[in-house]
């Protein structure tokens, strides 16, 4: 069983324009609307790959209802704690003329003590083989939230993957989760120094492994990803593709990685498949994420090597 936790979901709103003009009206195409959030997107990917992940999240207000309908439309199995405040909105402004995007991310609603208690009880009611803890937490939740969950599941034979940033990730690492999935910038903040090249990234990953994390998967954008354990350094590089949108690529890596591990695949196979999922997502416009046929086509062309 796979459970994916997304404590701070959002409605992603994608706008497309040529170049943003300051102090002027920007006419844009009608937006794409989609459920969003790291743990939520990972569950969406796992679901479309053919598995049945259990998504746990919190939803409130009109925006929460939009997210709910989006998940139902995609047939993602989920349970949501109802909250009084409104679910947040993230706005992504794609500038086609610059080939870049601007992400405006809201902090999220403040959960009441009762809502936090209900969320914890819902998470702890499951006995998964793999648990994903994905994204930020709403204001008011402690930055030890993921750490506490990892410690709860540690003696239950559950493999926990954390995809987070800042103190939330630093504290989670103290509880020795099975895996973490930082990108370069998140890894820099975790180890507290800039990382200039691939060797620096590998060294930082080994440092985190020495802290008690079994597997560190660091996503490297168009250069794929590297997985580091106590005795292995595995690199997976995808074929060159046309990049349309990068939002959600890291979440797709997480979804593909846990999906394949749950199938009993090796670490090497799982890393290659994760990279295929992330690469298939960057080929898609807006919040569409990867499609199955493209994932398997790319998977056959991912180059895996030992460093």
The CATH topology is UDP-N-acetylmuramoyl-L-alanine:D-glutamate ligase
Sheet with the most strands, sense and barrel status:
10 strands, mixed
What is the chain-wise order of helices and strands?
EEEHEHEEEHEHEHEHHEEEHHHE
Instruction: Give the DSSP E fraction (strand runs of 2 or more residues).
Output: 15-25%
Question: How many β strands by DSSP?
Answer: 14
Radius of gyration: 18 Å
CATH superfamily: Ribokinase
Widest sheet, order of strands = 5-4-1-8-9-10-11-12-13-14
Number of helices: 10
**Termini, distance in Å?**
32 Å
InterPro entries: Carboh/pur_kinase_PfkB_CS, PfkB_dom, Ribokinase-like, Tagatose/fructose_Pkinase
Organism: Desulfurobacterium atlanticum
Protein name: Fructose-1-phosphate kinase
Keywords: ATP-binding, Kinase, Nucleotide-binding, Transferase
For the structure shown, list the relevant keywords.
307 residues, UDP-N-acetylmuramoyl-L-alanine:D-glutamate ligase, globular, four-stranded mixed β-sheet, 36% helix, 24% strand, alpha/beta, 14 strands, ten-stranded mixed β-sheet
Strand-helix topology:
Layout: E1 2-6, E2 10-17, E3 32-36, H1 38-48, E4 54-59, H2 61-73, E5 78-82, E6 88-95, E7 100-105, H3 113-124, E8 130-134, H4 145-153, E9 159-163, H5 166-174, E10 179-180, H6 184-191, H7 198-209, E11 215-219, E12 225-228, E13 233-237, H8 249-262, H9 267-282, H10 292-299, E14 303-306
Parallel strand pairs: 1-4, 1-8, 2-6, 4-5, 8-9, 9-10, 10-11
Antiparallel strand pairs: 2-3, 6-7, 11-12, 12-13, 13-14
Helix pairs in contact: 1-8, 4-5, 6-7, 8-9, 9-10
Structural commentary:
With 307 residues, the chain is of the alpha/beta class. The chain has 10 helices and 14 strands. The strands form 2 sheets. The protein has a 10-stranded mixed beta sheet, sandwiched between helices. It has a 4-stranded mixed beta sheet with strand order 3-2-6-7. Helix 5 (166-174) links the parallel strand 9 (159-163) and strand 10 (179-180). Helix 1 packs across helix 8. The radius of gyration is 18 Å and the shape is globular.
